[in-house]
Amino acid sequence: MRPVLDRLTVAWNAGDGAAYGAEFTADATYITYVGTLYTGGAEIGTAHQALFDGFLKGTRLASEIVSMRLTGPDAALVVTRGAVHKGRPGRLDKIQTYALARRADGDWKIAAFQNTRNKALMEALSFRLQPATRPAAA
Fold it and tell me: CATH topology for 2-133?
């Protein structure tokens, strides 16, 4: 499962939208942290190429895996923390969920992706006002 995420990072760091989109299934869903929904690897790749050619030019992807688990013989869920940066990476301020599907050839592809920006101040305030909302992983 890790190789698909590694290839995704390599494609991002190279500014290669086609290679980025190739890591997704033909019917994948991709939800950005601002709420934009893309459907299918081709659309995801095309949109990312426009971003890589524009305001994301020269950016790099930083991430760490929080959890990875099989949900069936050919399905997995991966949760990561990540950030986009130029120069040195800062705080990993986004949380991503990946739904992975194993193809007949044994390779994993991303079937769904959700990216959410972590708002640390709002989260801390919420936990302070309502301590029972603090997850065990926090």
Answer: Nuclear Transport Factor 2; Chain: A, (3.10.450)
